[in-house]
Amino acid sequence: MKFIVVENYEELSRKASNIICAQVVNKPNCILGLATGSSPLGTYANMIQNCKNGDVDFSGVTSVNLDEYVGLDITNDQSYRYFMNTNLFESINIDINNTHVPNGCADDLAEEGEKYDALIEALGGIDLQLLGIGLDGHIGFNEPDDVFVGPTHMVDLDESTIKANARFFESEADVPRKAITMGMKSIMQAKKVLLIANGKNKEEIVNKAFFGPITPKVPASILQLHPDLTVIYSKN
Predict the structure, then answer these.
(1) Which residues lie below 8 Å from residue 60, measured CB to CB, with a gap of 6+?
(2) What would the pLDDT profile of 169-202 be if each residue is shown by its tens digit?
(3) Does domain 2-234 have CATH number 1.10.1040.10?
(4) Rounded distance, CA 75 to CA 104, Å?
(5) What is the pLDDT of residues 96-134, one digit of tens each?
(6) Which residues contact 234 (CB under 8 A, 6 or more apart)?
(7) Which of 8, 52, 9 is nearest to 21 (CA)?
């Protein structure tokens, strides 16, 4: 594990972007696993600028996102498909047909999970997976549990996750209670994993996840077993 401590969010975002862009330069047809939420916004802004500067070409890249809320369609401005289109895809030269987000409106979410895992396998797996970390240690929407769940699956969101995400909605009551998320198998089988965490409020969970015992009660702790993990953390 490479554990990098930086001075501020801007430095975190630059470093994370540089790692992702280097992956694309080294393998132009790579498979990127992408994340949503506030943590990667700066990273995506830097990736966009690098693309506009001509430093990186995303035209051959395929992306697979970690998760999606159940019940929000792609036109909903709180859906993760909408988030990715708005904050990254529409501003870089990626083929939108090569960007994939789980379908939270699928009639059969179990079948959707199986299809998503089959897609990732057919692509040859993920070359680099970007992750954030929740205050309860979740990665994607893999919440604290009694076991690590391998396949893409539907989850009931933890109350702490609902409260943390309420800032993006008009009220806490509007936050979906369920999501579909990539499971631990695809995440752990990614060739490289890059996790970013920002803010003093993340310090405790970062320490638990990467310097404490490996336990499904802290889902991110399983990443200690990954052979190529980089964590970038900033308190500020």
Answers:
(1) 28, 29, 30
(2) 989 998 999 999 999 999 999 999 999 999 999 9
(3) no
(4) 12
(5) 999 999 999 999 999 999 999 999 999 999 999 999 999
(6) 5, 6, 7, 8, 9, 11, 12, 197, 198, 199
(7) 52
The rounded percent of the chain whose pLDDT value lies above 90 is 93
Q: Where are the alpha helices (DSSP H) in 41-108?
A: 41-52, 80-87
| Averaged pLDDT for residues 159-175 | 89
Task: Report the predicted TM-score, pTM, of the whole model to 2 decimal places.
Answer: 0.96
Mention every residue, 6+ apart, whose C-beta is less than 8 A from residue 206. 133, 197, 231, 233
Give dist(CA 12, CA 145) in Å, integer: 29
Residue 160 has pLDDT above 90, yes or no: no
C-alpha 10, offset from chain centre: 19
Residue keyed to tokens 């975002």 = 13
- How far apart, in whole angstroms, are the C-alpha atoms of residue 160 and residue 4? 27
Contact 34, 126 (CB under 8 A): no
Domain boundaries defined on the chain: 2-234
